[in-house]
Amino acid sequence: MANLETSLKECLGSIDGATAVALVDYTSGMALGTLGGGKDFNLEVAAAGNTDVVRSKLRTMEHLGLKDEIEDILITLNTQYHLIRLLKGRGGNGLFLYLVLDSSRANLAMARHLLRRIEADLEV
Questions:
Q1: Alpha-carbon span 21 to 26, nearest angstrom
Q2: How many domains would you assign to the chain?
Q3: Is the pLDDT of residue 93 over 90?
Q4: Best CA proximity match to 58, nearest among 48, 50, 69
């Protein structure tokens, strides 16, 4: 089991093209931990904004009567991928990992695979 700091460092260190990562509580919109980003990318604002994305999708699924669970949400921009992975089990309810990737350097399939593994090892 890995702690939060170790998991965030692993995201940036092992996932090609990763530029920022956060663990976010989507009930409050608060980032519980962040790494990366920078002056041109406010990770706190992005984390809070993506809380609305998660809430909206969960609400839509409820209205549609879908009993499935969200594994991840992908947002593609011209130069970036934004990957939102909802945590499962061990106190992860209401939390998601938010990963920003440089699309010119990232392998999206590999990023999803590694993020899934990191999420499984994360002790919240």
A1: 15
A2: 1
A3: no
A4: 69
